[in-house]
Amino acid sequence: MRWIRKVPLYAVLIILVALWLLPVVSSFLVSFKSSQDFVSQTWADLPTKFFFFQNLETVLKNYKLQNNLLSSLLYSSVGTAVVVICASMAGFSIVRLRPKFNFFLFLVIYSGTLFPFQMYLIPVYRVFNTLGLYDTRAGMILIYSAICIPFSLFVYRGFYTTIPREIEEAAKLDGCGPVRSFWSVFLPQSLSPTAVVALFQATWIWNDLLFGMVLSRQEQIRPIMVAVATMTGYGGGNIPWIMTAVIFTSIPTILLFVALRRFFIQGMVLNISS
Amino acid sequence: MFQNVYYSFFDWNGLAKPLFTGLKNYVTMFTDRVIARSMINTALWVAFTLVLPATGGLLVAVFVTGVRGEGFFKSIFFIPLTISFVATGVIWAYMFSKELGVLNGLLGMLGISLKPSWLTSVPLNTFAMILAWTWQQLGTNMVMFLMGLGTIPRDPIEACLLDGASSWQTFLHVKLPMLRPITTVVITMAMVNSFKVFDIIYVMTRGGPYSSSETLAVSMFRETFTLFHMGYGAAISVILSIIVIVISAAYIRRMTKRDLLYY
Question: B52 at the A interface (CB within 8 A)?
Answer without folding.
Answer: no
